[in-house]
Amino acid sequence: MVLFIGLGSPRLVLSTLVTLVMGLIWTAGFATAAVGHLNMISVAFGVLYIGLGVDYAIHFCLRYKELIAQGNTYSVALSRTARDVGSSLVLCACTTAIAFYAFIPTVFAGVAELGMISGTGMFIGLFANMTILPALLRLMPLSREHISPKRPTGRLLGAVFALPVRHTVAIRTGALIVGVSALILLSQVKFDRNTLNLRNHESESVSTFKELLAQGKTSPWSLKVLAPNAVSAGNYADRLSLLDVVDKSVMLDDFVPTGQDEKLAIIEDITLIVGPDQLESEKEGVHTTSEQMAALGNLIAILEIYSRRQSDSRLTGEARRLLDALRIYKARLGELEESLKIKMLKSLERSLLASLPERLRGLRAALYAGRVTKETLPEELVRRWVSDKGHYRVEVFPRENLNDDEKMSRFIAAVQKVAPDAIGYPVIILEAGNAVVRAFQQAFLMSFIAITVLLIILMKRKTDAIVVILLLLLAGALTGAASVLLDIPFNFANVIALPLILGIGVDSGIHMVRRMRTAPPVNGYLLKTSTSRAVLFSGLTTISGFGNLALSPHPGMASMGQLLSIGIGFTLICTLIILPTLVKWK
Fold this sequence. Notes:
Elements lengths: L1 H6 L2 H25 L10 H25 L4 H28 L7 H31 L15 H12 L1 H18 L18 H11 L8 E5 L2 H12 L4 E5 L9 H15 L14 H21 L4 H20 L4 H16 L2 H11 L12 H7 L6 E7 L6 H14 L6 H34 L3 H24 L11 H22 L11 H17 L8 H31 L1
Antiparallel strand pairs: 1-3, 2-3
């Protein structure tokens, strides 16, 4: 829909989509040949290619449409479009590819593969937009009759177009103040390493898992320490148990019960009172319907006596609820025919007594319990805690809820201070998050330096390159500040949106500056040109295409959509409102 509104022609939209799809197919083919596989991160190349590829096509199509509206022939319009926009597209492809290629040297394989595929995809997209798109526009020439004549600009829209011209000083001052404020907030930007927060919090599995995390004794996220022998394992367990962040530490010796003499004496007393023979369940036999109904009546009578004699308690309350249910059940049975009554009675028997024989056998076995030692522990249990080479495992459980990143980091740091080789899922989460953060920090630093150098070399006016870079930094700072104010921390999902924001920011700035230098508007209103419309609609296309992820019930996808929409929104403001004031000023 945004493409139709922005391009204003079904032929231009069709040409754009065909070019986009062909470029995406070629990029996927390159990924197959060069890498051979995709992972959870590199698969995002599709999102990045679509977001940036459509940007190239929109700029080409709108400049072509503008030249046709000015009365140029189709051949001249295509030739001038390739000359006017082509140089900008080449520069955009180079700068964006460099930004992606900067991910290749990082130690995180997923990020490195994403950089290789997406970086090459930018050149593939450039080739598609400079070959397939012009050919399609030549085959499906834009009808002059369908090009709407320019309408007089309304007062409100005219005021918007005039903003950078009439309020230059105010916009520069406001940008400076907002930029400094954003820089102050950047120190509070967080990266959420917890992959559990990327899942649907309302799903039963996630809510149950979080309940387990909140209880230290049953937390599924624990740390493991490998000790060379039993003595060393005992020392680790004792020292770790003293830590404030540790609820308990467990080793094989902890499976040997304490106070066995007292417990065995109690079991002997129970055996004398109950007797094992009393726990034998009757063999299953065939009972008639009348016998089963009589048994049901006896059960109801016993429950009635129990509920009258016993004082109010939780058990008495449960007995009364069961009594009421059985009364209703018996009354309904009397209304059924024989075959259905037999089926219902068997169902009731299964519900009430199916587990009784096994429970009685378990209780009977418990009455024959003997002394437990390490030598009598089950072999399967021993293998889980002692290796074939005699190494002992010590498992450390947290006292706090590890769903909180700070508490997780504190727990890991305290345990590894005692046992540096402690490992477990919390360590994996922490180190994976650190690896991603380091990879993106390294990649963005390298890409920023490379893009800056390239812009300075290729742009005739060096100050133009400085303007583009400064606005890119401003948009990035505003995005980071917004993530703090709106409590949208970076995570494994939304961090993928950053290269797309970076690419669109660089490309938009290049297009606007190049238009000002190669074909400046006569009236000086840069916002009234096709280039400005292309920047606006390419950004809106990306937001509408991927920003709707913000409404997803999946927290990871929702945060990606939110961050992408915010980042591109700030990029558009910086490019369309602030950049014209700086270009004119210089």
